[in-house]
Specification:
2 domains; Rossmann fold; alpha/beta; 6-stranded mixed sheet
């Protein structure tokens, strides 16, 4: 039963109750509520115990949170309020199996389900501290709706979320009625001092389409050098850009001074194909090419339940990457030497195609590293991948922020959106959003009409 007691501190402070989905998204979540207090239902610890083994990010998050709680509590009882270490932070505790006196979620929704016990933990705190606002924080929409039906405040975990995702940085700007003499000069000179022309102020590497009637120049603005240069539309590894957005992407992928690239776009815009062709074009500059993607389990089951060895379990998930490589190889039909070279790159693992979990722990030095379907990563995963980059490594993230398969992620909270928003002004970074589908007219119909 919930205990009646005094408020733990200032009445203006809140008590946030976190569920498992929040911890698996961000193990440091308890330190992100400023002066407010944070409570964890005991059922969350029980669920994290089931997640602590394995190589997925959620396993890492579970282990990291358990260690964090152990370090925070030291010799104290975690069933009592414990001060968090960060200056100005509130307190923390684990809520045991409390039964609220007024509203019991298990009586309303049914007994035995962990979610309902988590709701009861929050409801018991609401009764115990009536002068405080108790808020359930969850990335599970259904759980939030159930909480609100019981007159319990509930909200999503907002840390790392991007506001106004429809206005997310696109990497390019079209300028109309641009001075025609500048457009002509761009075509003649390799570089032009950006200070001599009237470009909108930018603090980032950026692509521009300069237009004046029928005259057009496609340029790249280098923020470090403060110069603009023409963007080529030439083919790379026999893959020719089909629109200017693809040419912009290739320019960023080939630029040796840009170490981090993101390409965002709908299915069929050529994200993965362009990244893979660019890697092959520069194969002599890198020790190895890694192409990977996160595996999103089927029906929330681990892939361990699938038959066969590790390769046969993961091959279906990696098939789209193999399809792109096969398409590139088909461009060299009749060129036996190059076809054999591509096969040799695969056999010798100069090109390594594997799930993201299999890449963990490997040295990322002088690697061209492509992460496909990056929208299925959390912000923490993206940060971890980039932080492991060694010397002379280039990292490319591709994905569609509106096509997410991972539970509890959306267009605002996924790692790709987080990267685009937070890295956009860095001199080592370039981004381009691809809008025009090039797979087929039928594929475009699906994107535009359905």
């Amino acid at each position: 039963m919930a205990k009646k007691g005094k408020s733990i501190s200032n009445p203006s402070k809140k008590i946030f109750v976190l569920d498992t989905s929040v911890i698996l998204y961000d193990h440091d979540a308890i330190n992100n509520f400023h002066e407010h207090d944070v409570a964890i239902p005991i059922q969350v610890l029980e669920e994290l115990d089931n997640f602590k083994s394995g190589n997925d990010t959620r396993n890492f998050e579970a282990r990291s949170f358990i260690r964090l709680i152990d370090e925070t509590s030291k010799q104290k009882l975690i069933s009592d309020w414990i001060s968090l270490k960060s200056p100005g932070s509130g307190k923390f505790k684990v809520v045991l199996n409390e039964r609220p006196l007024i509203t019991n979620a298990e009586e309303v929704y049914g007994k035995g389900k962990t979610d309902h016990k988590i709701l009861n933990a929050a409801l018991s705190l609401k009764e115990e501290y009536p002068d405080k606002k108790v808020v359930l924080v969850s990335k599970d929409i259904c759980l939030r709706l159930k909480a609100k039906a019981l007159d319990l405040n509930a909200e999503d975990y907002e840390t790392g979320k991007i506001k106004n995702v429809d206005e997310l940085y696109a990497g390019k700007t079209e300028l109309i009625d641009f001075p025609i003499e500048i457009i002509e000069e761009v075509k003649k000179q390799p570089f032009i001092d950006a200070g001599e022309i009237e470009l909108p102020p930018k603090n980032a590497n950026h692509f521009y389409i300069l237009k004046n009637k029928r005259k057009t120049a496609n340029v790249f603005y280098n923020n470090s050098l403060k110069t603009i240069s023409a963007v080529s539309t030439d083919a790379i590894f026999k893959i020719k850009p089909k629109n200017i957005e693809q040419a912009f992407a290739i320019h960023a992928l080939l630029d040796p001074n840009i170490k981090l690239v993101s390409i965002q776009g709908n299915a069929g815009t050529g994200k993965t194909l362009l990244a893979l062709a660019s890697a092959l074009e520069q194969r002599k500059n890198f020790r190895q090419i890694y192409v990977t993607r996160p595996i999103v389990s089927l029906s929330n089951k681990d892939i361990g339940f699938l038959p066969g060895d590790a390769k046969s379990k993961t091959d279906p998930f990696m098939a789209p990457i193999w399809d792109n490589l096969r398409f590139i190889k088909e461009q060299f039909i009749g060129d036996d030497k190059m076809s054999e070279k591509i096969d040799e790159l695969i056999v010798t693992e100069k090109i390594a195609i594997a799930p993201l979990a299999f890449i963990r722990g490997r040295t990322l030095t002088k690697i061209f590293f492509i992460i496909d379907e990056a929208q299925n990563l959390t912000p923490h995963e993206v940060k971890t991948i980039i932080s492991r980059a060694g010397e002379h490594t280039k990292i490319v993230f591709t994905g569609d922020i509106y096509q997410i398969d991972t539970p509890y992620l959306d267009s605002e909270s996924n790692g790709l959106s987080y990267l685009i928003e937070n890295a956009k002004n860095h001199p080592l970074y370039a981004h381009i959003t691809l809008h025009k589908g090039e797979r087929s007219e039928l594929a475009n119909l699906a994107n535009e009409l359905l």
